[in-house]
Design brief:
The structure holds two protein chains of two kinds. Chain A is mainly beta. Chain A is built from seven helices and 53 strands. Chain B has two domains: 2-135 and 230-272, no CATH class; 142-227, Immunoglobulin-like (Sandwich), CATH 2.60.40. Chain B starts with a helix and ends with a strand.
Chain lengths: 861, 282
């Protein structure tokens, strides 16, 4: 075999050698010409006669009647030809006794930014398509595009859902910078022409397991208490399952909430929930785009197993000052945006606060108060330094505060309790165009999450208190390049590094007037990665999206190096149908430990250590995408299989707040409470979307399984994940009936989740152990984890918004009805007394949010 | 018109909505009865006991509430229960009609540190087995003191603080207990969750438990017992305690009690422990 290979190599080598040699010999023929001025056609004829060869060329590329002045006493033929055809674009080739003269077309690059006309906002994912070449590109996150084409005349078709399409004729004879402005369309009219060739449908992109949620959806779809919520809108997509009723925790393709990478302007967000998960932290007024990846992850993302949610905030209006005030049932918000320097520097400031605490204050007793609120603020400045350089500074601050206070007198003292948790993120980004094909973004990132619990009692000047905190500080750096060598390749590469500074537990307390007790555990680690990926159009039918990510995690003296292969591919069966497949390998180096799986703030973020390896997963997915009715509709169907290794969880019965450890002066070591296992998730997802027209929305269906196996849990037997929902259906619609009215609705159905509900009664064991008295002689227990399957969950939410537009302002009244037919969905189950006979035991459920109307008033100016 | 509608909706939302609804549900449950076997042996105990009972479904209402003695109703009285030491010696445990457990006096069958013991239970020709190895180590140093603190009303209250040295070079699981002797009798000291102590760092430091409730100020002495228990026994009693105290907490995931009984339909724990007792005078 090896001998054959070498034989073939030698044959091809010599054929090539002789071919090159023959070509050289023809070109090296000597030519003698006296000084003369001669037309090119005559010169070529003369050379043919003298050298016994023929020239072959297209009349279009040579001015045959052009006269050239030439002197050649003894020059090679190739030198003569190069003199006559002096432009670099001419090429010569021999074929037997024939010489071909042809002209290579010069390539030029068109590059620039695409922006919204009214606000100057840079627009991502805009399609720029050249029909005559059947090729195109899309703008990156920062609105930049670049495409290199041969010299010529082209029509560029520019399209983005929700904006008017544009056709721009371009005569390309040099590198060109072109800034394009798009105008939003009036959405309630069915005049959006989407049948633009190249306008990207689901069958046109290589990426699979990907959804982009437009701003209009989370503005119009009603969620908990009428609040507009990005995460809850994502929960309506197939493959993204919700937790309990009202929870903002979400489970993507059988993964856990901590396996979702949530990125807000490049900063990782560690806690995405307010009010124990009923609301997400993202204020819809400040958000520009939301991208969700459930599989087929591009190599630029890493560090989580199950999903990537990239949220980008608006840059702010560069033309004029605008704002929005929103008043709702439980919270109010505002947004203000405008230019600091017209067309160059803009800002956006938005804030939100709930006021249940303020409203309830008058009804609470004077000496005892329970108060809760959450608030968040987004602030961003965008500055255009020049056409090649731009700066972004994005900030987020969010906090939940739960307080209870008791004001006593001299005899019984005061008491204060505070539980608070929240994120702070800050990102400084610099966009730089190195050339018209190479775009770079450099980011400096800070992210902070702290959970704090504080209790103090003050009696006659004596203070006793408990101050307990967990948290994480991230200091990150990213360098991302976008390189567009030609229309068939769109290459991204870069590097990222994050320094994690964890505080798994920090406790300080004074008890019984004794000395201060302190305990603090710190874990420091560095997570880094290099990546490269290429969206490669191999042919009109076949495209590949290969990627490689080299991840590294350093904890103390030991490091983990984890190469991750990513591969997605698409094959177009016809102009509207594509088959897709993907494979990804992912690693996760930091984990959230949770007793509840609900994503409560008490959950603990910790790092992989020497003992606990990073979690890892491999996922394969195959799919089918079809655009229907001129891309008004999109249909996708995907099947996936995901295997997860080295999953980390608590041992049975382990809690997080265990003050006994501190009293025992032992150094707190959370790793003693952990155990590891494996997970499997597989299923299929179907999504039919209507993308344009007065009525938009989708119908989604998920069929899925999610299982776990931990040797130290459930007697070492495989068990269903708590959120293993077999069926999940969502029907979502937004109908813009007229300029004045928007109707919206969502109906969801999902199979019940799995609980640990005690179903068996046993006799309390007789022991001599201390303090083992119970109220009864029996106890209830279950023998298998998550063995109790709860009832199915379904709910209909409806909303109506009334718009009234004036010259410079618009006001919107919104009415929202949650759980319209008052379905009592289970929040949790417990064993309790029967309604009929208090002596009988039965299973009871607690439900929340049964038919809840709410209202909302917005004023845009 | 719109403003009226809004006022109406706000009013009705207050009336129609409350946050929480508690309702009875009718769902099918697993109704497979198990054979529950529990036995905890120690060289420091006078009697070796093993409980063999059957379980019920939570829907078996009549048996649970109409029975005068649930222990008697659920106990299996005709089981064959034997414990065999690794050296081949065997003890047959007999059913006690009063306590409804199988037992044997420890003087006739010694439980020795470092030895392994195998349990065999036969019920209706079905065999259930488990084994345990008795720990060689026991706690050696114990101390206790009264500490005084003020409550929210400014009253001075006595609490009990127990210290003991961790057994070195092994990961240990302890349960702490104490009985106070005072002028009019004895009082069991309640440590609540503090009674469960895990040694985490193998560093043989002093470990501490502070009582959860006050003790009598005229207490004269205290009998302290430190139980060094096998991990599975610790997990069992802690799971029962935590499940009991967290009933009704929607965010609490009930713990599955551990099981080391082999045999189809068998469930429970056969384990061992050591006890160190010390009397401290105040």
């Amino acid at each position: 075999m090896k001998a054959n290979f070498f034989r073939l190599f030698i044959i091809f080598y010599f054929i090539g050698f002789f071919a090159i040699n023959a070509q050289e010999s023809l070109f090296m023929k000597r030519v003698a010409l006296s000084e003369q001025t001669i037309k090119i056609k005559d010169l070529l004829k003369k050379l043919e006669d003298e050298l016994g060869l023929t020239f072959s060329y297209s009349n279009d590329i040579i001015e045959l009647n052009k006269e050239v002045k030439i002197t050649s006493e003894d020059k090679s033929l190739i030198d003569v030809l190069k003199f006559v055809f002096s432009s670099d674009s001419y090429r010569f080739k021999t074929q037997n006794k024939k010489i071909l003269i042809y002209k290579r077309l010069n390539k030029y690059t068109v590059s620039g930014y695409i922006r919204e006309k009214e606000t100057g906002e840079f627009l991502s994912d805009v399609s720029l398509y050249i029909p005559s070449w059947s090729k195109g590109v899309t703008t990156n996150t920062y609105g930049f595009y670049s495409i290199s084409l041969p010299q010529g005349k082209y029509d560029f078709l520019i399209s983005l859902m929700g904006y008017e399409n544009q056709s721009i004729p371009i005569a390309l004879n040099k590198d060109t910078e072109l800034e394009i402005l798009l105008s939003p369309v009036v959405e309630y009219l069915d005049e959006v022409v989407v049948n633009v060739p190249g306008n990207e449908g689901v069958s046109d992109i290589t990426q699979m397991s990907y959804e982009e949620v437009e701003d209009s959806y989370f503005q119009d779809i009603p969620n908990v208490l009428g609040e507009k919520d990005v995460i809850k809108t994502l929960q309506l997509l197939p493959g993204v399952l919700s937790g309990n009723d009202g929870s903002a925790g979400f489970y993507v393709r059988g993964g856990a909430p901590d396996q979702n990478l949530i990125i807000l302007d490049e900063a990782i967000v560690y806690n995405s929930n307010h009010l124990f998960g009923f609301f997400s932290i993202f204020n819809g007024d400040a958000i520009k785009s939301v991208d969700l990846y459930k599989g087929g992850f591009p190599a630029r993302y890493g560090g989580r197993l199950s999903s990537v949610i990239e949220i980008n905030t608006k840059d702010g209006n560069k033309e004029e000052l605008h704002g929005k005030i929103n008043i709702g049932l439980i919270s109010s918000s505002f947004m203000l945006e405008g230019p600091l320097k017209k067309e160059r520097t803009s800002f956006i400031l938005s804030g939100r606060r709930t006021y249940a605490d303020l409203l309830s204050l008058p009804f609470q007793p004077g000496d005892f108060k329970i108060l809760y609120h959450f608030s968040d603020i987004n602030f961003k400045i965008h500055h255009i330094i020049d056409s090649k350089n731009k700066l972004f500074w994005s900030n987020y601050y969010g906090k939940d505060k739960f307080r209870n206070e008791y004001e006593g007198n001299e005899s019984n003292g005061d008491y204060r309790g505070l539980i608070s948790w929240g994120n702070i993120t800050s990102t400084l980004r610099w966009n730089h165009e190195f050339s018209n094909k190479l775009f770079a973004n450099t980011s400096l990132i800070f992210s902070n999450y702290v959970f704090k619990s504080y209790i103090d009692e003050n009696y006659q000047g004596e203070l006793s208190y408990l101050d307990l905190r967990t948290g994480i500080n991230d200091y990150g750096f990213r360098l991302d390049f976008d390189y567009y060598p030609d229309p068939d390749h769109s290459i991204k590469f870069g590097a990222a590094s994050i320094y994690h500074d964890f505080t798994p537990k920090q406790i300080e307390y004074v008890e019984f007037g004794n000395d201060i007790n302190k305990s603090k555990q710190k874990i420091k680690s560095v997570e880094s990665a290099l990546y490269i990926e290429d969206d490669w159009k191999i042919s009109e039918k076949l495209s590949l999206y290969p990627g490689l990510r080299l991840s590294h995690f350093q904890f103390e003296s030991s490091g983990y190096f984890k190469p991750e292969l990513r591969l997605a591919s698409a094959y177009k069966l016809n102009s509207s149908t594509a088959l897709k497949a993907s494979y990804v390998k992912m690693n996760q180096f930091i984990h959230r430990l949770s007793n509840t799986g609900l994503g409560l703030p008490t959950d603990l973020w910790v790092s992989s250590t020497d003992e606990f390896r990073p979690q890892s997963s491999q996922q394969i997915a195959v799919g089918f995408s079809k655009d229907l009715d001129h891309k008004k509709y999109a249909l996708t169907a995907e099947a996936y299989y995901k295997k997860m290794n080295d999953l980390i969880g608590y041992r049975e019965g382990v809690g997080y707040i265990n003050i006994t450890e501190l009293e025992n002066s032992e150094e707190v070591d959370y790793t003693q409470d952990l155990t590891t296992g494996e997970g499997w998730a597989y299923g299929a997802e179907f999504l039919l979307r209507k993308k344009t027209g007065p009525l938009t929305g989708w119908l989604g269906y998920t069929l899925s399984w999610s299982e776990r196996l931990f040797p130290e849990l459930n007697s070492g037997k495989k068990f269903r994940d708590r959120y293993d929902r077999r069926h999940d259906i969502s029907l979502v619609g937004v109908y813009k009936a007229s300029e004045k009215i928007t109707l919206s609705g969502s109906w969801v159905f999902s199979s019940g989740i799995n609980y640990n509900v005690a179903q068996t009664i046993g006799v309390i064991p007789e022991t001599n152990f201390p303090d083992t008295y119970f109220f009864q002689d029996t106890y209830e227990f279950s023998t298998e984890k998550n063995s109790f399957k709860g009832e199915d969950h379904h709910r209909l939410n409806l909303g109506i918004q009334f718009h009234k537009k004036r010259k410079n302002r618009e006001r919107i009244w919104g009415l929202f009805f949650q759980n319209v037919y008052a379905r009592k969905n289970p929040f949790y189950y417990y064993i309790g007394e029967s309604d009929d006979d208090y002596r009988e035991q039965t299973i009871r459920k607690v439900s929340i949010f049964q038919f809840f109307p709410s209202f909302n008033y917005s004023l845009k100016f | 018109m719109l403003s009226r509608a809004i006022i109406f909706l706000i009013s009705t939302s207050v009336l129609l909505s409350s946050c929480e609804f508690d309702t009875e549900v009718d769902l099918d449950l697993q109704d497979k009865s198990l054979l529950l076997i529990h036995g905890f042996i120690s060289p420091e105990e006078d009697v070796i006991q093993v409980e063999v009972t059957k379980t019920l479904s939570i829907y078996d209402q009549d048996i649970i509430f109409d029975s005068s003695s649930i222990g008697e109703e659920l106990s299996i009285k005709d089981a064959s229960v034997t414990i065999t030491a690794d050296d081949g010696t065997e003890a047959l445990l007999l059913f006690n009609d009063e306590s409804f457990v199988y037992e044997i006096d420890a003087t006739t069958f010694s439980i020795l540190p470092g030895k392994r013991y195998n349990l065999k239970v036969i019920v209706d020709q079905m065999e259930f087995t488990a084994s345990t190895t008795i720990s060689v180590d026991n706690v050696t140093e114990i101390d206790a003191e009264k500490i005084i603190a003020q409550d929210e009303f400014g009253n001075e209250i006595d609490y009990l603080k127990v210290n003991f040295r961790d057994i070195p070079a092994a990961r240990n699981y302890y349960v702490v207990g104490a009985n106070i002797t005072y002028e009019f009798g004895e009082q069991e000291v309640v440590f609540d969750e503090d009674r469960f102590i895990q040694d985490r760092n193998l560093n043989s430091d002093f470990l501490t438990a502070i009582s959860d409730f006050s003790i009598f100020e005229d207490a004269t002495e205290v009998d302290i017992s430190i139980y060094n228990v096998e991990p599975i026994v610790y997990q069992l009693i802690r799971s029962l305690s935590l499940n009991n105290s967290n009933t009704g907490d929607p965010f609490y995931q009930p713990i599955i009690p551990p099981n080391n009984i082999e045999g189809e339909g068998g469930y429970g724990v056969f384990g061992s422990y050591r006890i160190k007792t010390e009397t401290v005078q105040f």
